[in-house]
Structure formats: C-alpha cells, structure tokens
Design brief:
- The chain is mainly alpha-helical.
- The protein has a single domain, classed as Heme Oxygenase, Chain A.
- It contains 9 helices and no strands.
- The protein has helices spanning 8-17, 26-53, 58-67, 88-98, 103-121, 125-147, 156-173, 179-183, 193-206.
- The radius of gyration is 16 Å and the shape is globular.
- The structure holds fe (ii) ion (2 copies).
- One fe (ii) ion is lined by residues 67, 136, 168, 171-172, 179.
Length: 212
C-alpha cells in the first residue's frame, strides 16, 4: 500500500479554496484585491531571496524574469502600456489606484497588510525562498481558480485583477516552461505553513463574508 502524507500547508491551501468566493460582493472582491497586493509584495521579496540563495540556478533566474521587470501582463487599460515592463506587485499596486475601495475598508486592509508583511519578514530566508515552489507549482493556480468564482468583476480595477489572475494560471501551468516547472526543484515543507496561514488570514480579514 502506498502512503503519502498531506502536508499541513496543503490544508491551508485547501481552506483558502473552500472559502465562499462565489458569494463575494463587488466591494468585498475589491478588498480581496487590496489584500492580494500585500501578498504580491512578499511573493516578490521571497523570489528575490530564493535567487540570492541560489545565484547560479538558471531556472530561478528564468522565473525571476517572468515575475519582475517584465511586460508579460502588458498592456492593460489604465494599468500598463503596451510593452511596459514592471514587477507584478507594481501591476497590483496600479490596480489598487484604479479601485474604488471605501476609505474605512481601505484603512482596515492597510493595517492588516502592514501586520502581514511584518509577520512574513520575521521568517528566515530559506523558508521564504521555498515558499515560492508551493506558490508556483499549483498552489496559487488553485487559489486563483477559486477567486475567479467571484461573480461581480464589473469595474476597471477588478477587470485588471482578473487579467492578473487568469494570466498567472497560464504562466504557472505550462508543463515545461511554466513557473511550476521552474521552481519545483525547491522542495517546500511545513516550515512554510505560517506563510499560507497568514495569506488565508489576510484574505478573510479583508472580506470576512468569505467564511459564510
Ligand atoms: Fe506574478
Ligand atoms: Fe508565477
């Protein structure tokens, strides 16, 4: 009989996917985009750490080029000009500028985001580096497919967020040159649990009805 263990962080991914994405209002989905911005900042920092720890790793360098200083999300109206290069967290920052978040909710998510980033930045570099494989090799693809179950994307900022999500599903999943294939040689383990749990918590903190 073949036995395999489900790592605890995979449960956290499962929990995120099982949230009530299809019940989100447009305002709540906007708050989720704001929360996701903070995730995208730590994602880029983790990838920089992975690259710095493995400076001769060609696959990681290629992955870095697909996430940073790249035009692979360009153009998008109001966010990126044709051929314009930027980091993906910069794309998300511009999405937020377009959004019409309520000031009260904005203050809440900004406070959550600052605490979230402070928490992630306390983790050691290797843990942050190996999180990249869990994000790129299927974890984020599952989360993005779950978020895409939300129904009301009828706002320029949300259309840009949807573009970000659906393009990332494409980037990550190609069997040979996808971001999953470029990162899975770094093996994630349960040291990365706090990263996934903090991601779940900031999403739920931004849009509490996800728990309904
Ligand atoms: Fe990205
Ligand atoms: Fe990616």
């Amino acid at each position: 009989m073949k036995l395999f263990t489900i790592l605890r962080y995979q449960r956290a991914i499962e929990d995120i996917c099982n949230l009530n994405w299809s019940g989100l209002t447009q305002a709540e989905l906007t708050a989720v985009a704001w929360a996701y911005y903070y995730f995208s900042v730590q994602f880029r920092e983790n990838l920089e750490l992975a690259r710095d720890l493995n400076p001769h790793d060609e696959k990681l360098l290629e992955l870095y080029d697909g996430e940073c200083d790249t035009a692979n999300l360009s153009p998008f109206p109001g966010v990126a000009l044709r051929g314009e290069k930027m980091n993906h967290d910069e794309f998300m920052r511009r999405v937020l500028v377009l959004s019409n978040i309520e000031p009260r909710v904005q203050r809440i998510v900004e406070r959550l985001g600052a605490a979230y980033l402070a928490q992630i930045r306390c983790l050691d570099a290797e843990t942050r580096a190996i999180s990249i494989a869990s994000y790129e090799d299927g974890g984020l693809e599952r989360v993005f497919r779950a978020i895409l179950q939300a129904e009301d994307w009828d706002h320029p900022a949300l259309l840009a967020f949807r573009h970000f999500l659906s393009e990332h599903i494409r980037f990550d999943s190609d069997a040979e040159i996808g971001h999953g294939a470029l990162s899975r040689h770094m093996t994630p383990d349960d040291r990365i649990c706090p990263l996934w749990e903090a991601f779940r918590d900031i999403l739920v903190g931004a849009a509490p009805s996800l728990l309904h």
